[in-house]
């Protein structure tokens, strides 16, 4: 495991501890008027927000839009206005297109919330409210579900906060339970040159992240992240018995989409890596009922972090290795 239990729980609980500040920010925005929500970013910083679009669309009639930062700046969507809640993220806080998107949001008069590892960065300085912690998802949960509560769409907010107070220790138990499968995955597939990665619903953001950000960006392995619902509209024609496919499966309403992919894959390939949040229910007793769906993206993210670490170790290719990122102009 990359982190000790103490290091991991500290990282998660830093986000949980910001509840009061998050609620204050969301309440101030809501009081001023919140007509819609825009989730804007690039790469993994956008993908980590993607599950929140799923939850807003499922639980609320509040309009929500998801945009790549650069597309947002150039398109300037008509729905965006001074009553929009603009949520954005950048690890460094210096991603040029994301900073530009935030600056345009500021000019528009929108309400800006930013996540960044550097609260002194240009992005943080542009935002109305900035947050930094080890888990962007934890802060995102508090922002989005508190907003849904204020909007009258989510009565289980206090119960969710109670789960958040326990989730760090339970999730670490789940990560420990995933270690054997993660080591076997790394040992078996360390020399593969290509992976399919599928997911859907609340888990699709992690599907994109694992294919694009982990396998390609951090491990230099070709990968095709494809929505489970779209798999049968092109990608499946490339599946052979030697094609490794990572099937990410959560416990949200779209679970049947991954069931279909699994059923097909079992007939035509010998290389299936199935990562299913349902396998970790015993390690996470606080997460039950509706919250098996709500915490699907968080569970997938944290379990896959174990897979990523083990793969990087056996390949002797640290996850921070880069060829171009942060090294050349692009």
| Biggest pleated-sheet summary | 5 strands, parallel
Number of helices: 13
User: Could you give the count of β-strands?
Assistant: 9
Number of domains: 2
Strand order of the largest sheet: 2-1-3-4-5
Q: Let me know the CATH homologous superfamily of the largest domain.
A: Glucose-6-phosphate isomerase like protein, domain 1
From the 3D coordinates, which CATH architecture of the largest domain would you assign? 3-Layer(aba) Sandwich
* Oligomer status: single chain
Percent in helix: 40-55%
What best-fitting shape do the alpha-carbon axes yield? globular
Structural description of this entry:
This protein folds into 2 domains: 5-150, Glucose-6-phosphate isomerase like protein, domain 1 (Rossmann fold, 3-Layer(aba) Sandwich); 179-314, Glucose-6-phosphate isomerase like protein, domain 1 (Rossmann fold), CATH 3.40.50. Helix content is 50%, strand content 15%. It contains 13 helices and 9 strands. It has helices at 5-16, 19-32, 43-47, 50-59, 69-75, 96-108, 122-126, 136-150, 157-189, 204-218, 255-268, 291-294, 296-314, and strands spanning 36-41, 64-68, 84-90, 111-116, 129-131, 194-199, 222-227, 245-249, 272-276. The strands form 2 sheets. A 5-stranded parallel sheet has the order 2-1-3-4-5, with helices on both faces. It has a 4-stranded parallel sheet with strand order 7-6-8-9, sandwiched between helices. Helix 10 (204-218) links the parallel strand 6 (194-199) and strand 7 (222-227). Helix 2 crosses helix 8, helix 4 runs parallel beside helix 8 (136-150) and helix 5 packs across helix 6 (96-108). It is globular.
């Amino acid at each position: 495991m990359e982190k000790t239990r103490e290091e991991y729980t500290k990282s998660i609980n830093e986000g949980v501890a910001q509840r009061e500040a998050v609620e204050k920010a969301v309440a101030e925005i809501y009081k001023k008027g919140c007509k819609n929500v825009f989730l804007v970013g690039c790469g993994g910083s956008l993908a980590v927000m993607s599950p929140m679009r799923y939850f807003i669309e499922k639980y609320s009639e509040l309009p929500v839009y998801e945009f790549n930062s650069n597309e947002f700046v150039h398109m300037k969507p008509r729905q965006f206005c001074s009553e929009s809640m603009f949520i954005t993220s950048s690890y460094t806080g210096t991603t040029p297109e994301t900073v530009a998107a935030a600056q345009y949001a500021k000019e528009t008069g929108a309400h800006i919330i930013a996540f960044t590892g550097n609260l002194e960065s240009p992005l943080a300085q542009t935002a109305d409210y900035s947050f930094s912690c080890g888990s962007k998802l934890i802060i995102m949960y508090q922002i989005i579900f508190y907003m849904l509560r204020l909007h009258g769409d989510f009565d289980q907010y206090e119960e969710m906060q109670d789960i958040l107070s326990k989730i760090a220790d339970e999730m670490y138990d789940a990560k420990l339970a995933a270690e054997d499968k993660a080591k076997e995955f790394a040992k078996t597939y360390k020399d593969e040159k290509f992976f399919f990665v599928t997911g859907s619903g609340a888990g699709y953001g992690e599907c994109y992240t694992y294919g694009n950000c982990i396998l390609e960006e951090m491990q230099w392995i070709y990968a095709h992240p494809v929505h489970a619902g779209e798999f049968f509209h092109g990608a499946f024609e490339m599946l052979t018995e030697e094609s490794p496919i990572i099937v990410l499966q959560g416990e949200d309403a779209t679970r049947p989409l991954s069931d279909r992919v699994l059923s097909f894959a079992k007939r035509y390939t010998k290389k299936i890596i199935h990562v299913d949040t349902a396998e970790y229910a015993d390690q996470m007793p606080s997460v039950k009922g509706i919250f098996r769906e709500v915490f699907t993206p968080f569970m997938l993210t944290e379990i896959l972090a174990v897979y990523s670490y083990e793969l990087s170790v056996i390949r002797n290719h640290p996850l921070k290795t880069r060829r171009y990122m942060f090294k050349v102009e692009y």
